[in-house]
Every structure is written in C-alpha cells, then in structure tokens.
Amino acid sequence: MDGEPERGVRGVKSAARTVDLLELLASRQNRPARLRELSDALDAPRSSVYALIRTLVERGWVRADATGTQYSIGIRALLAGTTYLDTDPYLRIAQPHIADLSAELNETIHFGRLDRGDIVYLATKESTRYVRPFSRVGRRLPAFSTAMGKSLLAERLESGIGPHVPQELTPLTPKTIVDHDVLLADLRRTRERGYAIDDEENSAGVRCFGFVLRYASPAIDAISCSIPVHSLDERRTGEILDAMRRTRLAIEQMAPVDLSGADLPTGI
C-alpha cells in the first residue's frame, strides 16, 4: 500500500510524457523526428522515450519509417481527431451555415476554436474562384494574427489575454502585429465595432473578417471570411459583413448555450 502513491505519480508522469510526445510529433507535421531529437525536446532519457515510442508504434499512434529510425504521427491520431469532429455539437450546427454563407458570397469561410494560444480550424468551405493552399481542417495558427483569434481575444480583455498570447509576437507577414500595445489597441477597436480584421497579418494579399460566436461563456468559437485584398471595396465589404452577421445570429440561435464560465483548454 505504501508504494501506491509513488506508482500513481509515475503513472501521471508517463501519461504526460505520452501526450507531450504526440503533440510534439503533430506539431512537426511532415517533418519526421529521430529518437535523439525527441529525447532532447522532451528532456527525457533516450531509453525511456524509445520504450514509449515502441509502444505507440505498436498501437498505431506513431508511425516509423522503413528504417525504423524516424517517427511521425500515426493513423490512430487521425481516427481520434475524426471522432472529435464528428461528435462536436457546435460544429455540426455551424457546418451547413458555413456552406450557405460560402455559396452566397463565393468566398472562403472558416469555423475555428480557441485552444490556448492558437486558433484551430475545424471547418472550411472554399471559394470556387480561388483556393488557398493551407486552409485545411486541423490547421493551427496564432490567435493574435488571425481574425477569428482576435475576435475571441477581444472578448477576454477584462479577464486577461495572457494565457492566449505569447510574450514574443512572431510575425507571419510584414503586416503582422508584433507589439503588445498595438495588439491591445486593435482588440479594443475590435470589441467596439463588433468584428475583427486580419489585414494581411496572416497571409499576404488576403484580408479576413472574424465574428465571435457567443453561445458559450467565455466564447471559444468564431467564424471568418477570407478575401483577396484586390477584390475588396467598400460595397463588397458591407455585403460580406452583413452576410456574416446573419450567419452568426443563425448559428447562435440554434446552438446549445453553455454558461459554465470555464475557459479551459479544449484538448484539440
């Protein structure tokens, strides 16, 4: 009995290391990692990491290359992610509205969720006029540089945006906001006008408008519309904003209300 607490602590550490390893491999996307890289990144003994990797390879959560020396995320992670998408009640409600909005405007529409400092793209409906190369489901982008992210950060000005914004704002384009005071001023303007603008801050030549979805408190989801800057004028901007307001209202009216007040990591 005396050893049970110690075994429990070891079990928690092992579980945490497993999650850290999977998140590390997922963050590398199409760049497989060697054992030494993983061991160094996790600050863990190589023997322990190797034993963990062997188990995860056997279970399908990690994939080894033909030489057995390079590792990447496995197919089981895809199955878990698909289950997350299939069972999320808010995504299920939002998807037909996103499709309708994209068809109405013939622009690219996104649905995303705040996860710590990132926006995770859970649904995208592409424009038929042009295709953006990186608008895939599951993509993560910094919240501070995206319209969806800024719309959600603006909701947290009173409670504090610290947990969702890094100390160093790394630019994605020459127009990315990299000064915290400038970002705070932009978030205050976002809250005043009711929507966020990503003005080529995330992708050169593309402007995005983002609207928070307030069926949860605090809000964790948002929608955005991405448009090539060259196709925008005042009239077109007004059409897009009006259509997005209608879509936001339609989604909020159908979504179950969550007033739990818990602003917790979503685990995606």
UniProtKB/TrEMBL annotation:
PROSITE patterns the record matches: HTH_ICLR (PS51077), ICLR_ED (PS51078)
Protein's UniProt name: Glycerol operon regulatory protein
PANTHER family xrefs: HELIX-TURN-HELIX TRANSCRIPTIONAL REGULATOR, ICLR FAMILY, HTH-TYPE TRANSCRIPTIONAL REPRESSOR ALLR
Keyword terms of this UniProt record: DNA-binding, Glycerol metabolism, Transcription, Transcription regulation
Domain HTH iclR-type: 12-75
Functional note: May be an activator protein for the gylABX operon.
Domain IclR-ED: 76-257
Pfam families linked to this entry: HTH_IclR, IclR_C
Protein species of origin: Prauserella shujinwangii
An example Gene Ontology molecular-function term: DNA binding
